[in-house]
Design the sequence.
């Protein structure tokens, strides 16, 4: 059975026969993408997977990309395009002697359009600093779990760095499977436990919020844009980068529509205090808080936050902790 529906980041598949209305959990249901027509969600009972399917030389070619729960629509589309491109170009069979160093360049080039620039830069640095110097001469097809474990034990840096680097290497191995360099299901990084980070977020209680408000009131004249930006984060729970990027032309009544937040398009819904805050601000440029001087806002934020840490006697408090505090208050 084929359901020709358009995929999006919030689509929900209904595993029902459209003609009879009966449950079709025992059958395969394919929900095809309109942007990449060879891509589909395949529903078989409780299993939801991404697949690429096309015709080649008179035969149906189908490749599993991964679980829907673990791979976003954008990432699935990117991987499907890579597979289709290989098939169309009749690419030669992959060289089994391809080294990890050489394949790292291919991996970054193939997948760059599914990442934001900052993510691509971070992944490239992980390759350059942590992966290629140790594993670069090894054949991609020959990398085994014991090699990954030995490499991981020698990593220098925090637990968070180790987790990020392992995720990048795992992604590279998955891409090698898609391109035929490794057999499916043999990712040597799969199932490795993440290192437990000793990082702990800080939270503000009622007294902390009061003391922070006192500092913001005292510094409003010295750092007007930064104070407004911090209040916006306090009221909405958004990320600092989202607040800095917010523009007046994205302001739409009770919300701000961000076209490119960390996880994609996002709406910041604003209560009356937030709307009153924005109404009190001068429009000095296209950005709400930065105007036309984003570097100036960053300097203000840095200087203001040093004062906040000093006056609250909390030297490790981060601006991002305001987001955690917002979520903590919201669930109470």
Sequence:
């Amino acid at each position: 059975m084929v359901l020709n529906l358009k995929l999006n980041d919030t689509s929900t598949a209904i595993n029902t026969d459209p003609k009879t209305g009966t449950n079709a959990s025992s059958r395969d249901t394919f929900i095809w993408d309109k942007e990449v027509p060879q891509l589909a969600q395949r529903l078989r009972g409780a299993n939801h997977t991404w697949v690429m399917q096309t015709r080649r030389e008179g035969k149906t070619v189908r490749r599993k990309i991964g679980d829907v729960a673990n791979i976003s629509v954008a990432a699935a589309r990117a991987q499907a395009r890579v597979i289709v491109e290989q098939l169309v170009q009749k690419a030669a069979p992959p060289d089994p002697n391809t080294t990890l160093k050489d394949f790292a360049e291919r991996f970054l080039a193939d997948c760059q359009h599914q990442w934001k620039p900052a993510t691509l830069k971070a992944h490239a640095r992980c390759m350059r600093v942590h992966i290629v110097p140790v594993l670069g001469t090894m054949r991609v097809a020959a990398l085994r779990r014991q090699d990954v474990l030995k490499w991981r034990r020698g990593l220098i840096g925090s637990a968070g760095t180790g987790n990020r680097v392992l995720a990048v290497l795992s992604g590279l191995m998955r891409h090698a499977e898609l391109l035929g360099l490794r057999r499916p299901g043999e990712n040597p990084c799969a199932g490795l436990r993440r290192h437990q980070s000793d990082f702990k977020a800080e939270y503000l209680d009622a007294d902390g919020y009061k003391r922070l408000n006192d500092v913001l009131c005292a510094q409003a004249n010295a750092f007007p844009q930064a104070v407004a930006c911090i209040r916006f984060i306090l009221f909405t729970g958004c990320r600092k980068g989202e607040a800095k990027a917010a523009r007046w032309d994205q302001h739409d009544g009770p919300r701000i529509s961000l076209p490119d937040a960390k996880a994609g398009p996002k709406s910041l819904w604003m209560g009356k205090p937030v709307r009153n805050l924005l109404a009190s601000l001068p429009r000095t440029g296209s950005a709400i808080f930065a105007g036309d001087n984003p570097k100036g806002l960053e300097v203000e934020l840095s200087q203001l936050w040093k004062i906040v840490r000093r006056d609250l006697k909390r030297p490790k408090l981060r601006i991002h902790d305001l987001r955690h505090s917002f979520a903590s208050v919201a669930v109470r």
